[in-house]
Amino acid sequence: MAAKILIVTGDAAESLEVLYPYQRLREEGYDVHIAAPTRKKLQFVVHDFEPGFDTYTEKPGYTWPADLAFSEVDPGQYVAVVIPGGRAPEYLRNDPELRKILKSFFDSDKPVAQICHGPLLTAAVDGLRGRRVTAYPALEPDMQAAGATFKDAEAVVDGTLVSSRAWPDHSTWMREFLTVLRAKAPVT
Questions:
Q1: What is the pLDDT of residues 13-22, one digit of tens each?
Q2: Closest listed residue to residue 152, CA positions, set 170, 168, 138, 172
Q3: Which residue ranges run through the membrane (predicted)?
């Protein structure tokens, strides 16, 4: 049986930040499950930059079914977790079931991949204190407030925590995460 990886997300997650790791990790041989507040078809979004805008724009993206609800997740069944960005982390960080799940991964020192606004979730469980991370650059003050040292780089590895800025950094982010996974939780 293949090792399982959990992706935690919700509506308004960045499409590429969910689907790229989902497909890449499956390609590598992992069994990947997507968890959300409830089992339903999730509506993802596309963030991009348009001339004349001071920040990114948001457009409707792909839809994708959640495999299970946060309340159904047994973190002990999973070797790692992926936390995509988008707007989803802004409201998901208030979900007590998700906070329990994420805390379990940090308490067990299992691999965690986070990207873009995903670190808002790990900050909510005090998983960033004393660590080096990256995130969407506008989150630098949030990362510092969470006790992390922020580095503006494609990917930052701190033990089993691998973080990235946004979807343009996917190849570096997944390459670094797979290095951690192969050492800590290889495909069986």
A1: 999 999 999 9
A2: 138
A3: none
